[in-house]
Amino acid sequence: MSKTFIPNPKQLKLTNIAWQDPLVDNLLAFGPSRSGKSAILTALTVARAFAFPGTKHAIFRLTLRSCHSHLLHGTFPEIMGMLYPGYLERSDVRVAKNDNVVEFHNGSKIYFEGLDPTRIDKVLGAQYATAWINECNEIDDYEIVQQLASRMADTAQMVGSDGSPVMGPDGLPVMCRPLMLFDCNPDVKTDWEYQTFVEKQHPTSGKPFSPEEARTWRRVFLPAHENANNIAAGYLDKLAARYDGSPNMASRFLEGRWRDDNPNALFRKDMFKYRVAPDNGFVRIVVAVDPAGTSGNRSDQTGIVVVGLGWDGNAYVLQDASTSANPEEWSKKVANLYDFWEADLVVAEKNYGGEMVEHTIRTHRRNMPIKLVTATRGKLVRAQPVQQLYLAGKVFHTEGFKELEAQMCSYKEDTKKSPDRMDALVWGLTELMKLSGGNSGGLTVKQARGFGRA
Q1: Which one, 232, 253, 303, 305, has least CB within 10 Å?
Q2: Chain segment 240-251, per-residue pLDDT in tens
């Protein structure tokens, strides 16, 4: 039986604002995980492309890679399949994934783009009728939002389902009003989207919006329980178990509310720098594993993070593949990641299970190089050298790893829940950059006989 998409009341409230509020320029959907934010904003963007022929629309994310994987290859075709079955297969519709664009039968286009430095100039070279920034709090530079706002100038006359012009109550044609859309799992109150949509003030100056400008910023809270028909049975219970003991993570992903910054956190959001993975490959790639002590809904996750050392001497976080799976499943995932990334080493903490950890991984790849490490010092002590790498600007994230980054920013010494993702990252970067001794991979790197040497 095929799935259908039926908007819930809060999703309908959001779309009603988009279509009926003549003053709104910026519209935010916020809430916890799986509350249907991306689904309704995809549907809204598509509906605007249909309603205004020949217009340009864009769906953005922090990086082009994440926009492709999560939206162009994920949410977009899924929602199109539910709302307009077979439409993307029509001969008068062009899906050019290599060009990051879908061209509709009426001449409208939806572009899928990243807002990383390598793409931003291309993005700002066009004009749009709709611009949606997915996971908008991954964008820490409000200037990017302002630059995009300056490109909201595309317009066209609205047409009905029969192709005839739609006339307004005044007898004049209904024209497209450019609209910026945003969504997020709320994080901290210092984020620009809290400052603009909630505090109604400029994030950089702190100056309050004028009453007229404040009216152009609207937000709608989407609760997960109203999206229950689109969530797998038991998912919310599993999510609650995952974040039990982690109040900061729970406030963001379970409750969907902003919180105050953690002044005692080892990592801060402004430490995270983003850069596309280098084209010339890596000196060395490590898959790092922090195995969970038990499996099941209420267990810690197994942290699995892939990191690479570039020829520029910087470390790159390539993937967060952390999972709640059992040992058979997570060890298979580790082996697959080792192959996919053509990694040089798997480093795994052996505090849980001792040599059994190595045996479990080797059942999937007998000759895979594995280094077992033991946690003899506290987590914060082990993480401090990694913190220094971030402070020195030596670590780049190749996309927004929101759960990993949230865990890093919320962890403090008295946190009850194990920071599984952060632990795996610390093990990986410690090994990659030789932070526990030996030559540092993060200083001077030379290329010789095809291999990296520090």
Answers
A1: 232
A2: 877 776 777 778
